[in-house]
Amino acid sequence: SVDCSFSQGVCDWKQDTDDDFDWNPADRDRGDGYYMAVPAFVGHKKDMGRLKLLLTDLKPKSSYCLIFSYRLAGERVGKLRVFLANRKRAPVWEQNTGKDERWRTGKIEIFQGAETTNSVTFESERGKGKTGEIGVDNVILISGPCPED
Known about the structure:
Layout: E1 2-3, E2 12-15, E3 24-27, E4 34-39, E5 48-54, E6 62-73, E7 78-84, E8 93-95, E9 104-112, E10 119-126, E11 133-143
Antiparallel strand pairs: 1-11, 2-5, 3-4, 4-11, 5-10, 6-9, 6-11, 7-8, 7-10
């Protein structure tokens, strides 16, 4: 298992330079480190912010599970999508509303076939809302299929 969270993770995170805004670190409520967030008021409607996780040394023909915490807090805050590098066209995961301000867990299976996935991109799309934020935290990559809840 590889810890790619933001406080002391060993992974290589990059801000996309072709997007409209950057993700920024935000302090956790408990005071133990920080997560990455996009406040609702940043940018214009439909603007995008992308944060890319570069994956190196994933073995071909094996499966991995990317597990992460996410939060969509606030009305009409926008969308959070996840893309894998070898499937650029369509997101492999998407969420557009938060029922409440709670953190939830997302899981994505990554299968290393002939084409290897060398990055995962978290994309935030600005909504109509003026308050709230989209947040991502506790990003962990484990080998093998995703565990059942």
